[in-house]
Amino acid sequence: MKLDRYDLKILEILSRDGRITKSKLAEAINLSVSPCWERVRRLEKAGIIEGYSARINSAALLKRTPVWVQIELKAHNAESFTRFEALVHATPEVTECVAVGGGVDYLIKVEADSIDAYQRLIDTWLTGEAGIERYFTYIVTKTVKSPDPGFLGSDLAP
User: Fold this and answer.
1) Does pTM top 0.70 for this prediction?
2) For a Cys-Cys bond, which of 41, 71, 102, 153 suits 106, CB 3.0-4.6 Å?
3) How far is CA 19 from each of CA 5, 14, 38, 105, 108, rounded to the nearest angstrom?
4) Residue 120: which pLDDT band, with cuts at 50, 70 and 90?
5) What is the C-alpha radius of gyration for the chain, rounded to an integer number of angstroms?
6) Torsion of CA 55, 59, 61, 67, to 10 degrees
7) Is 106:84 a contact under the CB 8 Å cutoff?
8) Rounded to whole angstroms, how far apart are CA atoms 141 and 76?
């Protein structure tokens, strides 16, 4: 599906404000309401727009301690990766996890109730079947930039 500047602008606006009215969206991209809304429906039907959601400020709900961890596994085979990734999926304190190349295997973000709670989690992993060779802990002291919900940082808009 080929996207033009109107489609890209629609995606940019909706990624920031999924609750914008039809008329405000049409006004923002300089189209009348009907053609604008036809474009939105076409983008939805094509699967480019998958849905609409709310960004929840978890810090407003409860205070969590963010910790980034580098993980290196003992063994580098499919079974070890599968076992570790299943453990990550089963651990609600892990809010992000990426597999990376280089000196480590995974970078994970843990949001625990405290540093002590984080360390208890790691201790459980080390004494269990996680297969961790070594880990490095980085305590977050300040968030400088967090993921922007905007459409690809608006870099694609002409």
Assistant:
1) no
2) 71
3) 21, 8, 17, 39, 32
4) very high
5) 21
6) 110
7) yes
8) 32
Cβ count near 84 (within 10 Å):
23
The three-state secondary structure class of 129 is coil
* Torsion sign across C-alpha atoms 38, 41, 45, 50: positive
* Portion of the chain with pLDDT greater than 90, in percent: 72
Q: Which two structure tokens, joined as six digits, stand for 26?
A: 């049409």
Q: Are 40 and 54 in contact (CB under 8 A)?
A: no
The CA-to-CA distance between both ends of the chain, in Å, stands at 17
- Please state, as a whole number, how many other Cβ atoms lie within 10 Å of the Cβ of residue 40: 17
Residue with tokens 């609409």: 52
> Can you tell me the distance from the alpha carbon of 127 to that of 104, in angstroms, rounded to the nearest whole number?
20
Domains in the chain: ranges and CATH: 5-54 (1.10.10.10), 58-139 (3.30.70.920)
**How far is residue 135's CA from residue 157's CA, in Å, rounded to a whole number?**
41
Q: Which residue has the tokens 């489609």?
A: 7
